[in-house]
Specification:
Chain lengths: 217, 563
């Protein structure tokens, strides 16, 4: 195994390999946008139809935890960007450090998310599991609030799944980074996982105002 | 038009199979199931899509037998619902969509652009496993209660009311979607980064352009059907309300999301077939293709415009009149790039030196059938007329002309065209031509009567019909049995030829593409040395290496003084 990254058999040059991997990641992210797009469209139409109910349901979300998580995630994007930079300039120890920091921040985000889910579970706000928006809420209110929470769990759940996958990728990167694999000549995996991580971050940047900040001004 | 009826491929007896090629480089079941060779993966797909074609074919046979008599001959109404649903699901998601891209595309794209393999060989193998996993879920659904929602999974029928095995089927199609996405991603990257020196964008074979356009749809469309079916599945499992009006949801939203993928999916089926035809026509007309740039660009145009026509499936399901007007107009627009292709193929034939080898029969059949399928599509895009023929057999006939007459004809024609490259052997030409003619006759006899049935008002998806429609239905069923024979024949003689066929040689037709400049079957690495391309595509004039005795001069003279 070559220290500066090995060339897979189907490629002629390292440059070609890098171009392919990078293009592949960008295309993958394009498919991800379309994947989330279906949910965003469903959200938009329902919020338009049931504007007041969505506002009311949104107020039951924990703004502090959501805001905290937003900061954590933006911070993780910073450390990820630092990891990519460190790899490009060849500071091998810093790569590992920043990747571990990113992983930790990602785990904090997921932990906080779990606490929020637990709250919703206790409040009977989980769709399909004895959903009850408020005491004595009528059927229509319940149904429309359930739409909001279906979207809340669908969108944040899918986002969290992407975070879990991202965390797995980070573990894989950290292992290789500790073995000193990443150099200024070969660091495409760090860059590409970085792209993925930033994408997942950006999705949250949209989710947070759409779900938490509907009527809080 | 001067046509010569010559035509057993100019195959000299001296050819021998290369000593080592991709088929015999390694042995054993592991060497196939763990292969990352795009050619072997193509063959894995070939076996699996053929399996699903026969699963879907069995359902089709039962449908046609059932419709022999007005009150229904074979099954209960409930079973009939399941038959046409499972026919659609097996054929669309597990045969038509992967057929040309995953079989011929996988085999040919690296060869055509002069690469050793696709950009991501492991991902390519993963795509196949994902396809198989999805297929298993769907077969499980078929075996345990079947599926009766129609292949469209309209809500709330699929998410609330259906008692059939909807959840595993939805899961299967959801999983299978990732196979399409990864294949599309792999192809786009491969075409961008893996081209041999000198293989510029406008020297790419038109098949590659078609695959590129198809891959764009794979990439941008498939994620939407994935999330849509996921939502419908969650709705069914947890009684959520996204698409259920009783819970405040909107069933029309499901239809919009569904067709946003599923209309472009039609172009996933037809575009690669157009690519196949664009390869076959110049080869057997011995002429450079007419209007290369326009054919290439029209593939991209179809892929792009195809994303803006989806709501023409919903003219009668409650969308606004203004939306319907816009979607009607946009649907007409798709006819333009499609017609550009047909005109260019026809112009290529003009004064060509045409030979009617088997692939050419399929290509010519394709042009005719696609023309009928495409033009009847315009009837359906017309708002007023659609009210009359919506949800009738007219629609069934229309899309079968596109999907079977177009996509399947292209696929089978392509299989014949590249069979010598894939196996190194030639199939029996006479039998093959016979099968092509049988398929053409059987197809038209099956589906043309359905245009008339639909126009007279026979609705689709019903298990019975008024007695006055019986004659046309019997004709259709008779045609279907001829069609079945037409599919069985290639299945048999192609398999036979793998062992007993004559050795083909590297370029039996001869054709101009890079894939014909390497031995048949190719070595695992595709080329001994990386090829350098310094010629234009389909250039028969300046290719002495093809061994054509009299290049083009005589045939360019008018065959008759006045034409």
């Amino acid at each position: 195994m070559h220290r500066t990254g090995e060339l897979s058999g189907q490629f002629q040059t390292l440059e070609q390999q890098k171009d392919s991997a990078t293009l592949g990641m960008w295309i993958f992210l394009a498919t991800e946008i379309l994947f989330f797009g279906g949910l965003f469209l469903t959200y938009t139409i329902n919020r338009h139809t049931y504007a007041s109910m969505f506002a009311e349901a949104s107020r039951t979300l924990d703004l502090k935890l959501g805001g905290f998580n937003t900061v954590v995630l933006i911070g993780s994007s910073l450390t990820m960007a630092m990891a990519v930079w460190s790899a490009q300039v060849g500071k091998k120890k810093l790569v590992t450090l920043f990747l571990i920091l990113t992983l930790l921040l990602g785990c904090v985000f997921l932990g906080v998310k779990a606490i929020e889910y637990k709250q919703k579970f206790d409040e009977n706000h989980v769709p399909g599991l004895n959903f009850q928006f408020e005491k004595n809420a009528d059927q229509a209110t319940n149904a429309h609030a359930q739409l909001f929470f279906s979207l809340y769990f669908g969108m944040t759940g899918l986002h969290a799944l992407h975070m879990v996958i991202g965390a797995g990728l980070l573990v894989w990167l950290i292992k290789q980074s500790m073995a000193g694999r990443f150099t200024p000549q070969y660091n495409t995996p760090v860059e590409n996982v970085g792209l993925y991580w930033h994408f997942v971050d950006i999705v949250w940047i949209y989710l947070f105002p759409l779900l938490y900040l509907i009527d809080r001004h | 038009m001067s046509a010569t009826m010559s035509t057993t491929p100019p195959q000299s007896p001296g050819y021998q199979l290369p000593k080592e090629h991709y088929l015999n480089a390694t042995y054993g079941i592991r060497s196939w199931l763990l292969t990352t060779d795009h050619k072997r993966i193509a063959l894995l797909y070939l076996a699996s899509v053929t399996f699903f074609f026969f699963v879907g074919g069995i359902f089709a046979t039962m449908i046609r037998i059932h419709l022999l008599t007005p009150q229904g001959y074979l099954v209960t109404p409930e079973t009939y619902n399941k038959l046409f649903t499972m026919h659609g699901v097996a054929m669309i998601f597990f045969f038509l969509i992967p057929s040309i891209p995953a079989v011929l595309g996988n085999f040919l794209i690296p060869l055509m652009i002069g690469a050793k393999d696709v950009a991501f060989p492991k991902l390519n193998l993963l795509s196949w496993y994902i396809y198989i996993t999805g297929g298993c879920f769907v077969l499980y659904s078929f075996a345990t209660g079947g599926l009766d929602t129609g292949w469209t999974f309209y809500t709330p029928l699929s998410s609330v009311y259906s008692n059939s095995a909807v959840t595993p089927a939805i899961l299967g199609i959801f999983i299978n979607g990732f196979s399409s996405i990864l294949t599309g991603l792999n192809f786009v990257v491969t075409i961008h980064t893996m081209r041999a020196p000198g293989m510029t964008w406008f020297r790419l074979p038109l098949f590659v352009w078609a695959q590129y356009s198809t891959s764009i749809i794979f990439i941008l469309g498939t994620p939407v059907i994935a999330i849509t079916l996921l939502l419908a599945g969650l709705e069914r499992m947890f009684h959520l309300g996204f698409f259920n009006p009783a819970l405040g949801g909107d069933p029309i939203l499901f239809q919009h999301l569904f067709w946003f993928y599923s209309h472009p999916a039609v172009y996933i089926m037809i575009l690669p077939a157009m690519g196949v035809v664009s390869e076959i026509i110049p080869t057997f007309a011995r002429k450079p293709i007419f209007g290369y740039t326009f054919i290439a660009a029209s593939s991209i145009a179809i892929a792009v415009i195809g994303f803006f026509v989806w709501a023409h499936h919903m003219f009668l399901t409650g969308e606004s009149t203004y939306a319907a007007l816009a979607f009607s107009l946009l649907s007409y627009l798709v006819a333009i790039p499609s017609a550009v292709k047909v005109f260019n193929w026809t112009s290529t034939l003009y004064k060509g030196s045409i030979s009617y080898d088997t692939p050419m029969l399929y290509a010519l059949g394709f042009i005719g059938l696609f023309l009928i399928g495409g033009l009847t599509g315009l009837f359906l895009a017309c708002l007023g007329l659609d009210i009359h023929i919506h949800d009738t057999y007219f629609v069934v006939a229309h899309f079968h002309y596109i999907m079977v007459g177009g996509a399947v004809m292209g696929y089978v024609g392509g299989l014949h065209f590249w069979w010598p490259k894939i196996t190194g052997k030639i199939y029996p030409e006479f039998l093959a031509r016979l099968a092509a003619v049988i398929l053409f006759i059987g197809f038209n006899l099956t589906f043309f009567p359905q245009f008339i049935l639909g126009y007279l008002g026979m609705p689709r998806r019903y298990h019975d019909y008024p007695p006055e429609f019986q004659v046309l239905n019997v004709m259709s069923t008779a045609g279907a049995s001829i069609l079945a024979l037409g599919y069985l024949l290639p299945m048999l003689y192609l398999t036979w030829s793998m062992r007993y066929g004559k050795v083909a040689g590297p370029n039996p037709w001869p054709a101009t593409g890079l894939e014909w400049r390497t031995p048949s079957p190719p070595p695992t690495e595709n080329f001994e040395v990386t090829p350098v391309v310094n010629w234009e595509p389909y250039d028969y004039k300046n290719r002495p290496d093809l061994g054509l005795a009299t290049p083009t001069a005589p045939t360019l003279a008018p065959a008759h003084g006045d034409d």
